[in-house]
Amino acid sequence: MKKFLTSKWVIILTVLILLVVFNALVFNVSVVNRNIVVGLGLDFDGTEYTLHTQVVLPKNGGVASGGGNNYITLKTNAQNIDIAIDKIEKEQGVILSLAQAAILVLGKNMVESGDLTLVEAFFMDDRVHDNLLLVMAEDKAEDVMNATVAAGEVASLQLVRQLSPTKAPLGVSTITMQEYIRNAKNSNKINYMPMISVEKTEPSTDQSKENEDEADKFLITQSALLDNNGLQCLLDLDMTQTFSLVKKSLQDGVIKVEGEDFFSVHLVESKTNLSYDLDLMECKVKIKIKTIRTDAQYINGKASFKLSDEEQERLKQSLNTRVKALYEYAKAQKVDAFSIVDGFKKKYPKKSSQIMADDFLDNINLKVEVTITQVE
Amino acid sequence: MEKSLNNYVHDNVIYSNQFAIIAFIVMIVFKIANLPSYMYQTAGRDAWIVIGILMAIEAAMFFVVLYITKRVNLLADNNKWLYIFHAFMYVYAMIRLTVLYSGLITYTSSSLFDQGRIDFIILAFALVIPYIASKGGNSVARLFEMLFYFVMAILLVMILTPSFKADFSELTPIFGENNPKLVNSFIDYSVWFGDYVPLLYFTVKNNKNKIIDKASVPVAVISATIGIVVFYIAFIAVYGEAGGLVSFAFNRMSVFNTLSELLGATNFLSILVWMIMSILQITMIFLTACNALMCIIKNRILAIVVNTLVISALQWFFIKNLETAHNFAIGYVKYFVIVCAFAIPIAMAIYAKLCAKGKI
């Protein structure tokens, strides 16, 4: 016995016992008492915030065995996020697990007049994923969270699916919490987020067999531009596409060229760079696109997807007009849509007093240079 | 010297490839946790340049330590002047242990549990870390070697499946803003550097394979230096001016790979790899403190027991959270640590040289 007590096995045994009982001692909550949050919503009524949490209630067997899941939206009013989370947990007698939350829907009122540093509270919370998508509801976040989508589906996950295509399209640009906070911390940068509208639709023939109710559909075609003071302006479908083209690298989409001979091209790939010249007071937007015509043209009896020289010129002119129109529209709303001031400040850090002048943007000459590569 | 102690002090012989593995792991582990955030708060967007310079100095110092450890066994040497060296090593190791250990405890408490009880976590580590350290330098080096391949496999999986939303313009302008705190960033975080010092208690033997013997240490320290600089560049490009708000950078950054997007915020791969590396690193510093105290009091078991009680009590009653540890690290102790980090190896290099010439 004495030999055993003085051997290393005593230590190993003690460690093993401690590791086994460790879980019970440190209050690790069982999955039964957890609510797995898949989506969050925030509204502001002028005095209080309303937090909506869309949570999964796992069924026996789960999705794998055809059991599926149920979802429930819990909401509460509070002065800040921590109190709101605490209230929901107390009311439901559960722990909210935020690690799987994929989307945060902000009500329009919240974006216009609420304190957006609240988003920072989610960022500071290690439980929340940095890839959390941020979107703005056309009206209330509650409308989006409570939308009736396909059977067995939940609004927030349906939204995430719509916002996360396999290829980055020429549509709304999604933004994650990490990107949002990074932009928000730089006072010279503008932030953006997709705007979500909910539209009632008639049930399809197949669906009507099971469900006679109306279904809801999410329209995601507009974007909101915002700074630290909140919402500054909304971009329509056309301007949203142009904004995405300038700000992101895209791999999908259709560009329409209006006019007498309407034609459209499929966007295979795009990359945009901005260059700055303080002496010339010029910002050049260099757009490089790889395209292919969407409809074939028949030349000498042969089908061709190539753009003619004239069509290429018209495409360049169209993009030039669209980029300048967006820039002027945003400037009229006192928004630097392409973060041009930030670009100049980074290139000419010693001339920041000149760059930060109120009328600096008014004196900038915006040039657009489009390079088209046609793919076979 | 009693027989068991005599055996122990000669059981610290490692091969140069094991030295390289230890160097690689200890160089990166705590520099990718809280340091990126602290560094950004001080050096701003130039943090990657500051860390690059500091890492280059650190890499160079590993070669100084390699030179010493190939020539003398400081653990077995009974020269009375070495008591000064052991005393400095002990204080130096305890300061670093106090700060870095709190990082491991906080990380464990926040990443593995909802409401992790720090006292129980301290208790668990108080059994594990001293036990590994009690096995001696040779066993610790073997443990590093065994876990290295596992760590590398996980790191490679994470590196090869990136999904960054980076904005590299956040890195500019380089030294463009007159940042008065930039100079401080070279000194303030000295506790997070000097990872070569604990290796002074090892004796390095040449590897039989000459290529491995010559190349392993340079490859390890250079790749760790490049890896850290790349990590800081990515960190600044991803978080920009929000970098100062991000605690445990490695955990947060590891979310940006394709695998994590499927798993959510709890990235077990990153937790696993960082915990393994940090436990090894803490064990290494703990072993240094034990070796230093043992050389003074000439009792190995007592040294381990005393150090376990002291460090656990410090964490339990004094440090308690990361903020206290951070404030302690950037206080006056940073000057002591930075002086020790250079003075100790240089003094020992001179000592090794004198020993080689037979003057001591």
Give the key terms:
heterodimer; A: 376 residues; alpha/beta; GMP Synthetase, Chain A, domain 3; nine-stranded mixed β-sheet; globular; B: 360 residues; mainly alpha; Amino acid/polyamine transporter I; two-stranded parallel sheet; 15 helices
Descriptive report:
The complex is a heterodimer of chains A (376) and B (360). Chain A is of the alpha/beta class. Chain A folds into 2 domains: 32-235, no CATH class; 247-376, Nutrient germinant receptor protein C, domain 3 (GMP Synthetase, Chain A, domain 3). Chain A is built from 13 helices and 15 strands. In chain A, strands 1, 2, 3, 4, 5, 6, 7, 8 and 9 form a 9-stranded mixed beta sheet that branches. Chain A has a 4-stranded mixed beta sheet with strand order 10-11-12-15. In chain A, strand 1 (34-44) and strand 2 (49-58) form a beta hairpin. Chain A is globular. Chain B is mainly α. Chain B is 70% helix and 2% strand. Chain B contains 15 helices and 2 strands. Chain B is globular, with a radius of gyration of 20 Å. Chain B starts with a helix and ends with a helix. The relative contact order of chain B is 0.22.
